[in-house]
Amino acid sequence: MAQRLALRRLLSLTPRGPPEPPGRAFGTSVGRRSTFNVQDGSDFQDRVVNSPKPVVVDFHAQWCGPCKILGPRLEKMVAKQEGKVLMAKVDIDDHTDLAIEYEVSAVPTVLAMKNGDVVDKFVGIKDEDQLEAFLKKLIGA
């Protein structure tokens, strides 16, 4: 019995890698590092507004058909940038305050942010060429 308790304590203290953040997981390891779900206003401030890298902010909703098309397309294009840009996903139903603050009146709305400022924006679906041009403009490539 004492051995079981000791083993349980040891296992509870042993790090098992970084915990997965709540929310959806993304398919590729590159996408996992460059794409994240915003958890709350404080998380948005820390990871988007205060980010040293440019950030693409995807305002979407679970019920939005065009969002389901644009989201994976945009994630793929961000992953191709090899860490030069990050992507934050904001569900407008969970984060209405952020949607109001950034004047999101339709989804999908995508903002390009650099140094905490919105430098570009589009609403609706874009094809891969348009997304690539949007990202290159943001990165300055």
TrEMBL record:
InterPro entries: Thioredoxin, Thioredoxin-like_sf, Thioredoxin_CS, Thioredoxin_domain. One of its GO terms (cellular component) is mitochondrion. Transmembrane segments: none annotated. Residues 14-140 form the Thioredoxin domain. One of its GO terms (biological process) is cell redox homeostasis. Keywords: Disulfide bond, Electron transport, Redox-active center, Transport. Pfam families: Thioredoxin. GO terms for molecular function: protein-disulfide reductase activity. Belongs to the thioredoxin family. This is Thioredoxin, mitochondrial. It comes from Pitta sordida.
